[in-house]
Each structure stands twice: as structure tokens, then as C-alpha cells.
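Q: What would this chain look like folded?
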Amino acid sequence: MKKLLLLFMAAVTVGITAFAVVPAGADAEANNWFVCKYVGPPGTPDETLQGGNNPIFVDENAIDVSPVVIGATFGDAQTHSVVIAGPYSPNNKPDPEPTCPTATTTPPTTPPTTPPTTPPTTPPTTPPTTPPPTTTTPAPVPQPQPTPVCNPSVTFGPWYGDPRINITLKGPGAFVVKGGIQRFADTRVFRVTLACDAVFKISRYKVKAGHTLTVLVDGVVFAQRTAPTGVR
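A: My prediction, written as C-alpha cells:
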């Protein structure tokens, strides 16, 4: 009985081992890559895939670039290769295999558009405020004062008595009154110099009837009066 049990356990162990999954790359180092080969100047419209088996699955030792990474390129000016996938172990290739792009042309990188430089806004220049002109009132020009009219004058009163007369002299000027008589002399003469508007009065100046009373101002005859007769 014990012998039959041992044989059963051994059979189960062998079955588990037969269906175990072998990890990828456990049987070899993952150092193989898929490479696409092109002809024509790289990055131009004339670039095309090379005919034949494309992509190829190669060991990284056959790739003339270091380090080997996806997108790495190598070759000359007319033929070149591009690494498109990997790394894989030789016995663990993906299914389905990757396909090659028709060309390696990439659209040109458009440089970022630099916005036009806007010059700094200059605030409008405010013209300097000009103060209103100062109005200077001219000083009043002194007006010439009218020269006071000052002329000499002689005023006679009425004759009276034997005969007599009252005389009023007003300056300016040098007055001479003559033609009168005195009680004990033939001539009575008054001489007086007056300023403007100065007044001098001669009272009861006696003149012989029929004779002339004369008033001179500054040596020039200014006024005359003839004494009447029969005046009382």
C-alpha cells in the first residue's frame, strides 16, 4: 500500500514540471533588436524602405551605435538603419512583429512663435502748463495838472463925492495906480506887487474932475477911468 502511494506522488510532481512557464529570456540574454533599413538621404522625400526582409531581427553587437536604444540610427549618407523595438531574447520575439514606418521623415519642428515685441507704451506727453501771463497794471501816469488861470484884474467902484472911487487890485503883477490927487499935491500914486489871487483894495481914491485914472500892470497900461464932473 505504501509503495502505491509513493508512485502516485512522483507522477504528480512530473506533471507540474512539464507544464511550468519558462520566464522570458531565461534561456538567453535579451540583446536582440528589430531594425528597419532605409535607402535615400535621411529625412527627405527620396527616403524609402529597403526591399527584402524589413524589419530585421539582429543582435545588438551588429548595431553600430552605443548605447542601443529605440530610435537610434546608424549607417552612411545613402543607407541607414533605425532601431524600432527591443531588446528581446532570440527565442522570445513578439507576435506579431513590429512593422517599419515608410520613412523617417519627421515634420520640421516649428519654432515657437515669438510674439512681436510691443514697444512700451509711452504715456502721452503732457505739455508743461504755462501759467497765464501776468497782467501788470501799469502805474497811472500822473496827468499834468492844469495850471491855474491866474490873471491880474482891476475892479472899479462907482464914482462919488468930489469925485472919488474905490479900486480893487488882484494879482499877479506889479501894479501902478496913478492920476489921483492929494489934498496938498498934484499926484497920488500907488505901487504894489501882488502874487496870484492876492487882493489889494484902494479906498476913496480921488481924481480931479475931467482927469484920467490909469492902472498899469508890469509897466503896461491895464485900465483907465476918467473922473466925471458934478458928482456928489
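The longest strand covers residues 79-88.
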